[in-house]
Amino acid sequence: METYTSIPEDLKLAVLEKVKPTEAERKILTVVQEELAAEVTAAAEKLCVSDIFVKMVGSAARGTWLSGTHDIDVFISFPEETHRRDLEISGMAIAREVAKHAEHAEDRHAEHPYLNIVFKGFDVDLVPCFRVASACQLKSAVDRTPFHNEFVKTHIKGREDDVLLMKQFMRGGGVYGSELRTQGFSGYLTELLIIHYGSFENAVKAACIWRPGQKIDIMQHSEMGHTEPLVIVDPTDPKRNVAAALSLDRFCMFIDHCREFLANPELKFFFSALVLPLEDKELLEKLDSRKSSQLAVVFKTPDVVEDVLYPQLYKMEQAAAALLNEYDFSVIKTGVWSGKPETVIMLELISGTLPNVKKRIGPPVWVREHSEKFKAKYEEAENVFGGYIENGKYVFEIQRKYPTAKGLLEEQLVNCSLGKQVHQSVSEGFEVIEDAEVCRLKDPDFRVFLRKWL
Ligand SMILES: Nc1ccn([C@@H]2O[C@H](COP(=O)(O)OP(=O)(O)OP(=O)(O)O)[C@@H](O)[C@H]2O)c(=O)n1
Ligand SMILES: [Mg+2]
Questions:
Q1: Contacts of 393 (CB under 8 A, 6+ apart)
Q2: Of 215, 191, 207, 217, nearest in space to 252 by CA
Q3: What does the alpha-carbon distance between residue 24 and residue 222 come to, in Å, rounded to a whole number?
Q4: How far is CA 371 from the centre of its chain?
């Protein structure tokens, strides 16, 4: 095994200088949190809702938020015996009352509704939850969050800087965020890694030798088997894997990021370099040197939240690749880019065209019944180039139904198994553009995607 030098102190300080909130920033956050708590209490009193508690949760309440990220999670906790409907109605009524003093408000929906508001420049979630006795007795998925908060607050003391370093390091590696778009590491997961390994440096060193099946159970209370690449048992709920949303590729990207960083600890591992949009000229040069086929399936982006959209796009990416493979096209790789107004599924193929002739291999000649049927079918069929015996089997050279990948996608893509909103949008219309035609897609963010793609 390679031996690594320690991470230089001045490198950590240089990162913290950029990502650690200043005293002034902390003060503002505290003041806004206090104002929000007072607003919620006042709203509850006004609406005659008694017995609710206001709880500040998330990284803002734990001192583990990155400077410049301005989200505050406010939980409005109701007695456990409250009916779900009452919780939703009263919780949302309180949230809407608070929103009267906000710059912007938007209804969101997880397992039950909550309100997202912009309050004094902060991105605030007002989330009603049940006050359950323990996280494993949850009535709603969000009920665990206050327990996470207590656990982290009591165990993280003095190691907040290590959390900030780890969050930023994961950002630099493109693996931070548990949303379904990224399928990476959540904030809580990052905090648990620091609690378990004791420091940023220890965690990074440990991850270099992780393999799928790695399990961390801080409370030693899990009896469950899990199949995910990384299992971090929730200290507040033995049945939950905090890393359940982490994909195998993000898991491995993190391992790789840790190894590369320790071999050469530099600032660039925390702050990835700005990628410039790919120009037409560069695009044409790349296409010319790769000599593969590029196909872009372009359609209108469905108007749904990212957590609904991305799983459907990843499903479509898989479905398109499977369709192409089924019809003999060799797929090199697939990718997804989504913006407004358009979404693009990129497909790189060994070739987008195949010969008109397709070889159909039949049964061995000595399996009399089947082979005679096979022979009779193709001898009479139209568009057959010819037939012969090869390795004891009848072989016919027939006309290929889809000699171009573009033609195949145009005709068959809508029949693939696609998610609801993506299917709806694709049914309304889509376009398949090829190779140099991709120059038509000008969105700068798409061109950034293309630079990494080619
Ligand atoms: N996949 C998720 C997302 C969120 N949470 C809970 O909801 C809280 C708030 O979520 P979020 O704002 O996404 O994460 P933070 O921990 O606040 O981290 P960040 O600094 O990225 O905001 C988390 O701390 C965690 O307790 C969770 O359990 N599982
Ligand atoms: Mg947060």
A1: 361, 362, 363, 364, 365, 371
A2: 207
A3: 42
A4: 50
Question: What residue owns the CA closest to ligand 1's atom 3?
Answer: 186
Residues with CB under 6 A from ligand 1: 57-59, 65, 71, 73, 144-145, 148, 178, 186-188
ipTM score for this prediction:
0.92
pLDDT of residue 109: 84
Q: Name which of 88, 81, 93, 114 is nearest 44 in CA terms.
A: 93
Binding residues: 59, 62, 71, 73, 125, 148, 167, 176
Residue found by looking up tokens 């949008």 in the block: 425
SS3 readout for 60-98: HHHCCCCCCCCEEEEEEEEECCCCHHHHHHHHHHHHHHH
Tally Cβ neighbours within 10 Å of residue 210.
16
| Ligand 1 centroid, distance to 58 Cα (angstroms) | 5
Is a pLDDT exceeding 60 seen at residue 443? Answer: yes
Is residue 159 pLDDT above 70, yes or no?
A: yes
Domains and CATH numbers, the chain: 1-144 (3.30.460.10), 156-273 (1.10.1410.30), 280-353+403-453 (3.30.70.590), 357-399 (no CATH)
Whether the Cβ atoms of residue 229 and residue 213 lie closer than 8 Å to each other = yes
* Number of other CB atoms surrounding residue 158 within 10 Å: 6
Atom of ligand 1 nearest to the CA of 71: 22
